[in-house]
Design a protein that fits this description.
CATH topology of the largest domain: TIM Barrel
Number of strands: 12
CATH architecture of the largest domain: Alpha-Beta Barrel
Shape: globular
Strand content: 15-25%
Largest sheet: 5 strands, mixed
Amino acid sequence: MPAAPGIALVGGTLYAAPEQTPIRDAVVLVSGSEILEVGTRANVRIPAGVTVFDCSGRFMTAAFWNSHVHFFERKWSDAAAIPAHDLQRQLLDFTRYGFTNVFDLSSLWENTIELRKRIEAGEVSGPRIYSTGEGLVPPDALPSADVCRVMGMMETPLPEVRNASETAECARKLVAKGSDGIKLFESSQRGLTLAAGAIEAAVEIAHGAGRPVFVHPNTADDALAAMRAGADVVAHTTPGSGDWDGALLSEARLRECALVPTLKLWHDVLRHDRVSVRDRGRADGGAPGTFVV
């Protein structure tokens, strides 16, 4: 039997799921980290002795997923040895915004797993972490040590794949290590691209193991190619390509390919550019049409 509920959230409007009608004058009974009962004030009995929070005029939702994070910043390095107090404060980057699940799309697998272990052991509070481990990249596409330092990144030796066969082998190794998905960087800012058949090879291995495939595009053509190759998720929009056209969006619907729009990314990445460049990039990266998938 679960423990008696310790908290009752009462009177707010609850959005339990996007496809469900909101519950007005809702009651949510909570015990520890477990939600015991949800309903209206009229049909949920609030046990004696619980702490009641009046949520009238407020809104409640299910917890959020952040499906595009990276644990490759220097602050996560040597995750097993980060002092618990520091680590707890860093994890607030997620929990204070309501993210209870995050998907890391490329980082050092062994380091990220140490971070996940500390959360799962209860040493610190944090989101449930899913990870692709190291993303797969075209040859010679890795950023230099100087670029990593300026961007605040750990140097991460990502697997460079030259053909479909190498891609499949790397995907097998990641799956064998326990990765929760496969990530491919389809091209680089220098114009280097994955070999023909590489994404399809990764998709075959990943889907055979029940894992999703994420693809990082730099252009609308990248995004379209990823969808046609069977990728499950396009990891962000491509402001440099302008608005995505109807053909690309139709392809996404047809193949049921999801999109992580990464709205905040374009706000931060373009902060050093001219105002006109920032405005154009943010508008194209966050245009409503780019979300319809």
